[in-house]
Amino acid sequence: MPHDAKELKFLAAPKKGDVSALLMRPEDATHLLVLGHGASSNMRSPLLQTIAENLAYQKIATFRYNFPYSENGRGRDSQATCTATIRSAVAAAHEAAPDIPILAGGHSFSGRMTSTAASESPIEYICGLVFFSFPLHPAGEPAITRAEHLSKVTIPMLFLSGTRDALAERDLLQPVVKNLGKLAAIHLLDTADHSFKILKRTRKSEEDVFVEMARTVREWASVLN
After folding, report:
1. What pLDDT is attached to residue 3?
2. CATH number where 58 lies
3. 63, 65, 48: which is closest to 13 by C-alpha?
4. Mean pLDDT across the stretch 103-132?
5. How many independent structural domains does the chain possess?
6. CA–CA gap between residue 67 and residue 77 (Å, rounded)
7. pLDDT digits (tens, 9 = 90+) for 155-170
8. Could you tell me which of 79, 85, 5 has the C-alpha nearest to residue 48?
């Protein structure tokens, strides 16, 4: 049964005005994940909706939000505006649900912007970061330069990455996560691509990929301090 989402607004960044947010909070929620969207998407995308619904079944609330550019249909915001929006979203999420621990992250671009913000200075209220398809490099251009800032993050991180993700080659991402030490964990999703589309004939697990991700987030978050 679908979970209801409460529509909210918050001030994104100086001179950028308000943006929209969706709070989906199941009963007895154990954590609240501030969940951002991909670069060319928005908070109402079917992908983010599916992630949020599955997290709700695992007692993880979500606070989805738009960046100013996705709210207004304009060109991509600067990195500074994006990281400021993330900090504002976390603060708004804490105000909306002050009684539960907060995680932050998102799919692809927003996950990287969240880790960038956390590497610049700690984000108040959050206890962990969750990356749905961390975009380690552009498709066809394998590199790890986008991961350099991760060593400055001081809270636990969870990477959920498909084995067919063209923006995060497994042989590059796994060593990056390993080098981050005890703060970082990775969960590989068999046959999933960057948008979590799977190859049904060759996928070894019978578990739905979105169920698998939500379960993994719950298990990982349950042992955070």
Report:
1. 81
2. 3.40.50.1820
3. 65
4. 98
5. 1
6. 8
7. 999 999 999 999 999 9
8. 5
How are the residues of the chain apportioned to helix, strand and coil, as percentages rounded to the nearest 5? Answer: 35, 25, 40
What does the block give as tokens for 150?
């991760």
Confirm whether 115 is domain-assigned: yes
Asked, for residue 1, whether it belongs to a domain, the answer is no
Average pLDDT over residues 22-50: 97
Alpha-carbon torsion (180, 186, 188, 193), positive or negative:
negative
pTM score over 0.90 = yes
3-state secondary structure 135-163: CCCCCCCCCCHHHHHHHHCCCCEEEEEEC
Residue 9 β-bridge partners: 20
| Pairing mode of beta strands 31-36, 6-13 | unpaired
Per-residue pLDDT, averaged over 198-214, amounts to 93
Q: For residue 51, give its domain range.
A: 6-221
